[in-house]
Design brief:
Blueprint: H1 6-9, H2 11-16, E1 20-25, H3 27-34, H4 41-45, E2 52-59, E3 65-71, E4 74-76, H5 88-99, E5 112-113, E6 116-117, H6 119-122, H7 131-142, E7 155-163, H8 169-177, H9 180-188, E8 196-204, H10 214-225, E9 229-234, H11 245-262, H12 279-311, H13 319-331, E10 340-342, E11 348-350, H14 355-368, H15 372-388, H16 392-408, H17 415-432, H18 438-454, H19 461-465, H20 473-488, H21 496-513, H22 516-530, H23 549-554, H24 556-561, H25 566-582, H26 586-595, H27 604-621, E12 633-635, E13 641-643, E14 645-646, E15 651-652, E16 658-661, E17 668-674, E18 682-683, E19 692-694, E20 698-706, E21 713-726, H28 728-733, H29 738-741, E22 745-747, E23 750-755, E24 760-769, E25 773-784, E26 788-793, E27 795-796, E28 800-801, H30 805-809, E29 812-813, E30 817-824, E31 830-835, E32 840-842, E33 846-855, E34 863-868, E35 874-876, E36 880-881, H31 885-893, E37 900-901, E38 907-912, E39 921-925, H32 940-945, E40 959-967, E41 972-983, E42 993-1007, E43 1010-1018, E44 1026-1034, E45 1041-1050, E46 1053-1057, E47 1068-1069, E48 1074-1083, ...
Helix pairs in contact: 5-7, 5-20, 12-14, 14-15, 15-16, 16-17, 16-18, 17-18, 20-21, 21-22, 22-25, 25-26, 26-27
Amino acid sequence: MPRPTLAQKRDFVAKAFCPRALVLSTPAIADACAVNNCSTFADLLAPFGQDVSTQITIQDGQGAPYFLDKLNIKFTTDFKIKKRSPHSRTEIDDLVHTSVADDSGQANVPFLTEHGVDPRELSSDISMWAPWYTLFRQQWISTMQASEHESFMHPVACVLVASGSEEDPVGALRTLQSHPAVNRVQTQGFSGANVLFYYVLVHDGRDSGVLQTIDHKFDQVRRAFGQNSSLLKINSNTDLIEADTSEQSKISSIWANSLSTTQPLTPHPDSVFGSMLNMRDVTALRDAVKQMMVRGIVPHMQYMIRVLSDQTANQRRGITGRLFLAGRRYFGTAAKASSTQTGVDGDVYFCYDSAEAQMRKLADYSFMLKDFRFAQSVYQVARRDFQSEKAWKCYAGAQEMVGVCKLMLEVHATRAEFDSNFEDAVTMYLHKTHAPCQHLAIRCIVIYYELLKHHKLYSFAPSTLLRVPSTSGALRAMASEQAAYSFLKFPNRPELRKFSFYAMLAAQEYQKAGIASLAHRCLRMVRLSLGATLVTVESESPEKPVDDVSTLESGASRALASSNWSSIDSYINHELGTQCMAAQDYDHALQYFMALMGSDQIPPKLQSKYLQELLQLYLESSDKLYLESEKALTTDLDGSQNKRVELSVPTIDARMIRVIMSPDLEGEDGVLEWRYGGAAPTAHVNGSADLRCSVGESVAVLLVVKNPLTIGITLNGFTLDCHFDADAAHDAEATNGNESESPAFAITTVDTVVLEGGQTSMVTVTITTHRAGRLTIRGATYLLCDILPTYKTLKMPGKRLNDTMEQRVTPTYSADTQLGFQIDASFPRLEAVLEDFPDTLMSGSMQRALIRLTNCAQQPCQSIMLWLSHPSFFDVASPLPIGADEASAELAESQSMYVYSDSVETTAEVLAANVLRDCSMFVIAGPAIVSDGSAAAGTECEIKSHALVPVETLGPGESLLVPVWIRGDRVGAHTLSMAIGASTTRAVTTTGCKMRTRKFEIDLVVTPSLRVNAFVRPSVQNPHERILGIEVENVQSGLDIQLVQSTFTSGHYELSPLRTGNMPRVVRVGSKQTVNLMYKAMPRAGDVQTQPEQFTIAALQQYIFAKDKPTAVPAPVQLVYSNAVLGHQGIDSTHSSLQGYIARSQAHRRRTMLRNAYPLIPDKFHSALFPLYETFGIDFVLFWSEIGGKGRTGHHSITGIDLGVPHDYINEALTPPASGAARMWLKDTEHDRQELIQSIANRSAASAHRTERTLDVALRLTGVRRVSETDTLCVADIEVSVYNHSWQHAYDATLRLVSPSESDQAPETKPECSGPRAAWTWCGVTTHTLSVKALGSVCVQAQVACSALGVIDVGMWELSATAVNASATISPYAKSLECRLHPLHPSFINVTI
């Protein structure tokens, strides 16, 4: 916006303090003006006195020339100095009331929108925001009266007007010179006898006969009165019928616009001005005024300025002149009359011929001619004289004009330079004068405020406006309102809180003054501004004025309620509501009273009062309310429509609303995504738009209702407002038309909800569906305190958007959505009931439970699946249809998991599936899909280990019983999750499917029963054998446990018990006792089958280096079951159910171990990389039964017992194949490969502390003989065996036998042990070269020479070995295949003959 020029800034002030001329005319002139609808000749000249284009160069008070482009002049018909009425306050209030009589624009607040403050409107003129102030300002300045202390309202000239139709115009003009008004100007006016007389001779165009003599009469006037005379011709439009209508309206608008500016509050009926004038007459009038100014008034004022400047030169000379005057005053001999008098108001003023008055006149004339700098200097000199004489009214006027001059100059002064002038002036006007001059003080404030606005010094305006006298309530309200607007015009940003404060003050003052419309407007502005922030409104967006109370309630009220301004908000709403009630605006009154019901910071007494007023308002005006909002008109189930209001009490958080399908059923319902591979079913979609239920299903809607008040309320008839969209396809398939005509749904109603102050309660509304379609929950309806019908809109808030940078920087949310769900006739509805599920188990014990499944939908369930979070805790048997003859028999057979037998094989070989599947998912109905997605899963061995056989389908109304075994797998408190999914379509894919799922959580506490540990010892007899010990501790108190059977499973070892002589046939573990069971692990006869390890090496190598990932699964493995019966009867460990459960438990533990060991390998590849069983691992199961008590049975297991055989074969997969690694196109992909390789290598390095040795040496005494019968020297034959424990590599080894005499050269061959070594030595060949195949052994013969009989330690040797073809097969990440071994333990032999 361009900066206003200086002329525009001072235009209002220049017009307020412009010269004035007294206009007197003869009666003939009054008749000539009356035909133009002007009462006087002054009214005829008034429009042309504004912005007179003088265009002359004049001199200032110091003789310097300056250009005067335009000047204003006001014409008056009388001059009097009147005493101000003592009831001036009433006069001011009446003027303010008249200013605001026109209510147009009072409801509009252009600078405040529903989004906040509009910066475009802030740049507009502040006068547009409150036009009633502009009207008051114009009218107040126009009606100012003359005063003795200043010359602004005193005429500087007398304009005498005579008509050319008069016989003696000169005599008529001389008669006007003696008019009483002229006498008053000469005696009471500042001009005195020096007033200028200007003579105008007017020719009326209607007098055609005078046209020949008008020039002669004007010559007489000029000869009689000189150059200050002019001739004016008017009323040339004698032909009214042929007059141009457009030209006439243009002429009439000149006077109409002038009157609307100078007298905006004076009523002017629609009249036509200047009907006898044409455009030539208008031009003649304008030229006449200009000639009057240029040839008469301006030169006269210039002359008076020169004369007065010379007369007051000494006083303006400074300290020298003042000392001279003081000397004359106190030391002069002649007595001088006083120069001061008392005015009509009782105030002291100076006589017009005094030097002080002449200086004031000089300053005023200079100011009127826009010589502000010279005028300021004269005002400053004059005010000192006024102050010394205690002429406070004169002093206040001088101070006022000093400040005005400073602001009228182009050079901006600081606030301290001009603010003190206006402050002193207002103070003197109100407190120092004889009678308070409120009219002058108000004029001073208005002038100062206008100058501050033009200079954009809005920060100084509030303090200025607050100086308005408080006795005038209406004017004080208007000033407070303008002060509030000033805070919005601050240069940096609007001060909204200060704006609200002053607007609140204005509202209170308007209310006291009886101006309710503006009080209402100010309160609305406060309500908007406190909740608003400065926003940038897009230029292309349409302007949206805030004139709707509902918009106010939805925007600013919520912001106020969430801030610390709740007390002010309640006060504003109450006042607005009361005002609307007084105006019989019941709709808006109800909205404002409803806004009072949202804050908990209001005292309880006030809240109770507001609530009673709200209810009483509705009772009194319910038939007069007109609610325009669509949501206010609700339709009941019977089709009737009711008007309801939306109230903030109580609050219902839409984010806390829960929709529960079939609330009478157990478990948590939802549509989840089922993915094969063991992953937990996850939510498929989020949001209410994807909620579904079946036809005939009940749906519970849970709403969290909170009372924000501190007083209690009741909600009566609480229900939901729902909208139903029928499914056209389903209705078309109906057998008859009655179904579509039946009710689509039924909703329950909560009779009464009682909420105490601040209480939160859960309200449940049940919806029963009858037809397919879409049901939308639009809101909640209820009666507040059984009186006020209330509606609460329910919408889900939009999510935070983070797609673009702008959305991430500026919080942006998606649109709110309505809550609802789909009613689908094909949607499954499966009822699941858990029966006999325990809450406490002993560790290892098993208990049978049941899952009862019933299809409650109208369609058959084609697929039913079961997912378990803890597979090792559960075993699932085949489902049994209820009602079948064989169901009861099969159910009876499933009462026990263990099958007891009197004849249990000690060793049994079983071909078992070796696929590492995730066993957390079971198929109850539908096709039996293997969880790992393998199509080659239907082998005989797998069926034997996975005995669950699903049913084909589950029809409508049919039921199933699913036996489930629960085992206390781990001690502690557990929360077991179970999910049952159902679908009316076949789940034929191997990637996953969507199912309606019901989730359950089972709390189970497992108490300890047995503590079972395993330990391994090497065998002295055969290094290939191991001694396996099982330590069983009974931690129960007062409970004995009988061990039934121990079962070992391995692909390489057979185990047999090592029974001692005192070991009982039946092993019983007493309370707090421990039993050790010892077993010997022997390699199975025949070739070693290492297919599982070879599979892992090949698959892992393909996974790391090949382009295509492995998909094959391991081949079945031959397992050896070693059973040892410890009781009276044994257990068939190869029974399908038991074997399947144990295998699944072991698979779960192994997958957990692999997940922790190799975190960079995804779970979905575990079954294609690792087998379930390894060749050299041993799985142990110990079956037991409780003696007495409840007779519980169970088993404990240990998976993957390591016998110390070297099995670091994983590192071999880290070597690229002979064909090379597949090329990686992306750098990140190659980086991922190297990171995977390094993690696997680090895992192997972490197990480097293991103490097993690839090769071992055993010494055995075979015979002893003497060298001779007389010699004590003996020779012992020793069989030295070298064992290779590696199944991967053969070794070439060198064995060197070290004698005690050589131990100093080889100290590492001498272990730390005691025993005689000095009495013997190796003899014969002591160095042997050997070749040992994988898992093989080699024997060599050696001899020891002994000097004495007895026990000696011959364990001194050194073995150096290298793997065959080590350079071709060794991995860079594997441990070295070269070794150098020494004895770890002594080898004693007993040399006897």
